[in-house]
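Page 47, continued from p. 46.
Same chain as before, 252 aa.
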Amino acid sequence: MEMEDGPSGPVSPRTLRALTEAASKVAEAESAARDAKQAAESALELNRELVSQNDRLRSTLSSNVAEYADAELLRENERLKQQVLQLQTKLVRSQEVSLISAKVVDSRITYREGRQFVEYKLQIETNTRGTLYVWHRYSTFRNLAATLQTKNGYKRKEIPELPNKQLFGNFSEKIIQDRVAKLNQFLEAATNAEYLQWGIRVDQDTCVYKRRVKNASRDSISTASTHSSSPRSSSRLSMKSFSFRRGSTAGN
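Result:
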């Protein structure tokens, strides 16, 4: 028969096992508590990191949205500026450009399509576009001179005549300089004659006009009734004759 342990006697095996099991459970509980604490601390740390990452991401997204919006605004602003410039250009071109003076300031020998010819650089002072430049061949000036001298009924003495081309020597320096002098005499007379009106096409979008002064005397014009052309048709002829030729170049 097994003896019960007394209060002062040796511990029985049963009691020892119970104590051991109890100590083991306490140790397991303490270990579980430590693990739970570590897990909670890790969870808190992870949560803090996630919150921080979320804040950074939100800030980045906000910044990207702002930058995108700024870029869109800049593009739209640039587009509107271009539209305004185009409208301003159209407005300027729609306004008539008046000729103040015109003179030949340079010449050059040009080759095009196997042909050689001389072009003269015309400097045109205008009322709104400043100084414009355009290159024209000698024949273009002669066409205008012929129109002003004959088709409109003006006497040749009023407008200096431009000589015909020569068979030889058209490209010599002397001939070219003589033509420059004749051209400038012609242009000065055609510009100063208040009763004349004509135009110079500078480029596809620009034509400079020399208008007739109202009520200007035209003593040189024949008053005979044989002249059937109306002033309006005459002005159209003179403006059309001095046109911008294909192949000529212009600039301002």
